[in-house]
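Re-run with default settings, no changes from the original entry. Doing this only to confirm the output is reproducible before filing.
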Amino acid sequence: MDRTPRDRTRHVSSTQITALLDLLHDDSDTVRAAVAARFRELGHAGLTALEEARDSADAHLRARARILLHEIRIEELCERLSGVLSDGDCDLETASVLLARIENPEVDGSTIIGELDRLGDLVADELASCQGPRQRAEVLGRVLAEREGFNGNADDYYEPKNSFINHVLQQRLGIPISLSAIYMMVGRRAGLSLRGVGMPCHFLVQFETDGETFFIDPFGGGRILTRESCKAMLAGFRHSWREEYLQPVEDRQMVRRMMANLIHIYHKREDSQRLDRLYGFVNDIQGGQS
């Protein structure tokens, strides 16, 4: 369950707000840090003032208000995500939306949910005419890959945006785990029993129905894989085989792997700020397991 950070709103007059905004012009790091701390303490009132200031005719004030507003929003989103990750259930959808908004606070979570709902309705409509287990297993690929155009981004595999749900929904491109997350969120809306399968070097979706189990490959256009084809895939990666590789994982393990992918990318890019943030989230996940 998503958790809203505690309300830190404090009573403040318009005169005090004006004085704080004026202090944003100050070039002293100490003064600006103190002003930023005060805006954080003000909660909603501080955010409202900064939102108005970011459209100010004063270019200097406008720029500094936008920077501070961006920082505060990210901090609050991080707090919310930490709460979700620390929860025993660790909702995949909520975590994915918050992760995308932390990367870009301007992302509209309701737009993401609306698109997932629309896709879920398409899958549900298609399922209504299915008569057998395999036909039901093939619906996700037929709707999401063939009709909606979701594909693996093999040309730019290590682009960080491939891991963010808003980008995958907009561009219809992703990596195995982000596409699997989309398949699962959409399929669950249509009543399908879906879980992630964290194979080495790849990620699949397990679908169970009427006592049968199918493995769906979202990166491969939603094709249905057998145990033997999964084994052959790993052989192509020069990786050994173990039966346990086809065991489904919990949503929290899936979120952890999504973050591990981003950590790998940002480590190569020497992006210490994003790395520190992600390591903190991984610690939250591990804490939620205890």
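Residues 59-86 form the longest helix (28 residues). Residues 58 and 137 are 58 Å apart (CA to CA).
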